């Protein structure tokens, strides 16, 4: 299992190993990626947690926190800068009108579930910010939804990483582990983007 402490964090030539870099900064990367990239970063965080680069609860907490703060930021932008040109540009997207329609029909359900639906992740919190949904209501529901979302997608990555090792067997050596993790992450990313492309084509 990789370690970020002691002499094992450095190579004989004094350079810091890639394992130590991931172990030290990986949770921060999961936090930032979950906020702005979404499911891909959360799933990758779960896979790296399975490899032992950081604890699974830490990856789940980072993904949930990143998602929560990003959506809270977009909500506040929509609430306080409704006339800003960036918000106006978001209003022109087709998904914005759809988000408002769903918000009016299912206010609580939509606030909770928008992050799980492709095409609504960035638009929806801005749309909700321009609506009459109270700040406190959005904050509470956003927090609950972020915890569920982060836990779910990090767990998917963790279980996917476990499944890869069960199928391919335990591979020894740091290079093999890194290649396996990279291949797994690439497969997950390709799958997610493939589903997004299919859903977008279906909507069109």
Structure write-up:
The chain has one domain (6-203). The protein starts with 17 loop residues before the first helix and ends with a helix. The chain has 204 residues and is an all-alpha fold. α2 (39-50) crosses α8 (135-168) and α2 runs antiparallel to α9. The chain is built from nine helices and no strands. The relative contact order is 0.14. The longest helix is centred in the last third of the chain and has 34 residues, at 135-168.
N-to-C SSE string, H for helix and E for strand = HHHHHHHHH
Task: List unreliable stretches of 5+ residues.
Answer: 3-11, 171-175
The major pleated sheet works out as: none
Count of domains: 1
How many beta-strand elements?
0
Q: Determine the fraction of residues in helical runs and give it as a percent range.
A: over 70%
- Class from secondary-structure proportions: mainly alpha
What is the residue-mean pLDDT, rounded to a whole number?
75
- From the alpha carbons, calculate the radius of gyration and give it in angstroms: 19 Å
Strand content: under 5%
Total helix count?
A: 9
Distance between the termini: 46 Å
CA-based shape: elongated
Quaternary form: single chain
């Amino acid at each position: 299992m990789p370690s970020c402490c002691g002499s094992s964090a450095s190579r004989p030539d004094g350079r810091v190993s890639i394992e130590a870099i991931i172990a030290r900064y990986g949770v921060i990367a999961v936090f930032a990626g979950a906020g702005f990239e979404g499911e891909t970063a959360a799933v990758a965080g779960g896979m790296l947690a399975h490899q032992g680069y950081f604890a699974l609860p830490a990856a789940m907490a980072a993904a949930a926190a990143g998602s929560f703060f990003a959506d809270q930021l977009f909500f506040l932008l929509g609430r306080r800068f409704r006339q800003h040109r960036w918000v106006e540009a978001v209003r022109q997207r087709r998904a914005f009108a759809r988000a408002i329609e769903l918000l009016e029909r299912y206010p609580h359900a939509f606030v909770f579930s928008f992050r799980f639906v492709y095409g609504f992740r960035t638009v929806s919190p801005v749309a909700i910010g321009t609506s009459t949904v109270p700040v406190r209501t959005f904050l509470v529901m956003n927090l609950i939804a972020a915890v569920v979302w982060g836990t779910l997608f990090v767990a998917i990555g963790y279980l996917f990483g476990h499944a890869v090792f069960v199928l391919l067997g335990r591979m020894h050596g740091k290079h093999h582990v890194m290649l396996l993790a990279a291949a797994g992450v690439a497969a997950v990313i390709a799958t997610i983007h493939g589903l997004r492309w299919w859903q977008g084509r279906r909507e069109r």
